[in-house]
Amino acid sequence: MSWRLGIDIGGTFTDFALQKGDVIVLEKTLSTPTDRSLAVMEGLAKLAAREGLALADFLARVDAIVHGTTVGDNTLIEMNGAVTGLLTTAGFRDELELRRGYKEDIWDVRLPPPPPIVPRRRRLGVPERIRSDGSVHTPLDEAAARRALERLGRQGVESLAVCTLFSVVNPVHERRLAELAAEVLPGVELSLSHEVMPKAPEFERTSTTVVNAYIGPRVTRYLDRLTERLREAGFRHELLAMQSSGGVMTREYLRRAPVRILASGPAGGVIGGAAVGVAKGEPDLLCVDMGGTSYDVSVVRGGVAPAQPGWNWHHRYLIGLPMVSVETLGAGGGSLCQVRGGALQVGPESAGADPGPVCYGRGGARPTVTDANLVLGLLSEEAEFAGGSFRLTRAGVDAAFREHVALPLGVSIEEAAFDCWRVVNANMTQAVRRVTAQKGIDPRGLALLAYGGNGPVFAAVQAQELGIDRVLVPKASPAFSALGALAARPSIDEERSYLAPARGADVARLRALFEELDARAEGFLAAAGYPRAEVTARYQLNLRYPGQNWSLAVPVAEVRGARNLSFATEALREAAAERFHRAHEAEYGHARLAEEPEVTGVRLLAFADVPAPHFGAGGRASAREPAPARTRRANLGDGFKETAVHRGPALRPGDLVRSPAIVEETFTTIVVYPGWTLRVDDAGDYVLERTGS
Description:
The chain has 17 helices and 36 strands. By secondary structure, it is α+β, with helices and mostly antiparallel strands.
């Protein structure tokens, strides 16, 4: 039987999902911020012990490890990436700062610019110019290039981004600058824009390449260190890393573009969410993931988690590569509760894994959301926490709330905890409203999928605020992003630029670009263990109307197995134009049929199928209302009351739990708020349904 393992490293916990056929085994360990690979190895040792195996024997049974990580995101958040320089065409060094005139909030006159990952003194222009047709207008001034490189060397540059105009059609100058950099700055890490993001326009390409250069060395070192530790422990296969596009690929593929793993952890949850939604007849989902540090929101429509290239702003920098859309808010179990300027603030600052919330008993002294949940009785000192890793303690929690919240606000400790619960819930609900409004989506038409260790604690009350009547909580919700990574397919999603009127496009050129992308994808997938016979290639053309900034990807062919470009004929041009008109009308509600679209590039998505986890359909079973294991005093939004407490592992398919109630699972807690019922479906997952006020 094939064993596959998904791993998701968060700010507080590192989650594991071991797939053994149809059996899923979950595990959690506290993350180790100083070296996140240590938590991975600790969790692997715990899983091996649970299976009664030595670590080497356990890893010998595992055929694939799929890894999602926030290392790249943390680098941008903490601003501790490599000392980065930028070489670009003379006159264009400020493009990164101009940002196309974009501002996240046009009404906030005090909004500061993003912290510069490459300050102006390390952004240098070099005389050179390539025309849009690829011809050389101004030869590269190599003497000036050497002077610029020497200047960057004196500033201690460790990583260099190179982005020149129209290098996507002729990279000759970027390649020569890379050769000069190797001579003048031996050992410097290089990010060439025609390799990182080989498509126009130049701002998106520059921003993406600079972010790649900034986070690349740290991400690469981490993946190398983890790979080496896994190899020493007995793992003999390629480590697969989750990509922001929702696919997975090898370390070697990601080495030249580590930027592709940004938001890879949350992407795993969205991919898993799409699979769960399809299985349970809920293809339109609002996915919310609340862990120890952050709260991630995404929308799945039609059972698909689309990865869109282009205008993806991430930590205030634009990433032009395909990314599953995820909105992240600093709201998790470890979010700190404090009073500033007379107002209660919850997050975005977090206690993290070390020291963690006060109730962890690891030296934390400032109250958090998890501490508030303990005071409110939503969590308990009696139950084992994080799968039995430790128990929560009330020691020090009351004192922390008294000092940091209750006294400044003039309220009791329990009122302070409830106020913190209300504020963090309001923050998360507002984030959902913002995301759905920006997409033009009414959340009342969606079901809510809640996961993460803390997601099920707040799920029903958030759904009620949003007008949602149905909440899905997978049995594996505490490690759902790790499980979702196992549902992701090994894939390569790349583009190449080519600009021409649709009906005048050079078919031979289009074929050559598709062949280039196809050969590259075939090579990397084969190296990852997926031969061509198992690979599906989806060929697309990017088109737009003249004057538009953004393109739509129009599918033109899908081929499984051996390469077959027979679709690339003269008829392709007319067919693509007609498909684009229909796609534009479907997406935007209108089509400009009198205008000829223009091709802006080609796109290839190549993927292989894998044995994904089985997500049950979740039909109704015969109802039974089990007696609670015990009761405890808890505040579920309408004051403290004796509340039924059920043990999750004791519930069976068909069981019905009425509110108010709390269900304690091995790694999470599900709260059944007033006006809701909880049902265990025939797949063993939880369904919360609104019954009224």
